Amino acid sequence: MNVKLGIAAAVSAVFISAQASTAFAENLNADLLVSNCVVCHGDDGISVGSTPSIDGIAKDRLVAMLQSFKDGSRSGTIMTRIAPGYSDAQLEVIAGALAGN
Ligand code: HEC
Q1: Which of 21, 51, 70, 80 is most buried (CB neighbours < 10 A)?
Q2: What is the per-residue pLDDT across 56-74, written as a single tens digit (0 to 9) for each?
Q3: φ, ψ for residue 53 (rounded to 5)?
Q4: How far is the CA of 5 from the centre of ligand 1 (A)?
């Protein structure tokens, strides 16, 4: 095999596996992430039970709410356990999807 081609193939294989493991570590798929919220908050964030509805809230405000649950500055029964499970980037994606942008 041509040596240069061999090196190029090896380098791109490492690059592809690095990308794959990043995707595994941090999933930024909005639909998948938000599917974890609708269980309690209802489709489109409109809750049918006692859980607060989270529709119609601006993205920045949602991010701030989620961050405060994550860092513990806001108390809650459930969200203080859920929010820390997401990276800051994931909370941004979730808030953007819920806010419709
Ligand atoms: C197991 C049920 C449950 C799930 C799942 C859940 N939540 Fe919550 N959420 C709650 C409850 C209950 C509250 C009220 C605060 C508390 O007690 O934690 C709340 C409060 C909130 C609030 C504050 C609303 C307000 O107006 O004060 C936001 C924002 C929120 N949740 C976003 C989310 C997002 C985004 C997800 C998905 C990543 C999510 N929640 C998943 C139950 C849930």
Answers
A1: 70
A2: 999 999 999 999 999 999 9
A3: -70, 145
A4: 52
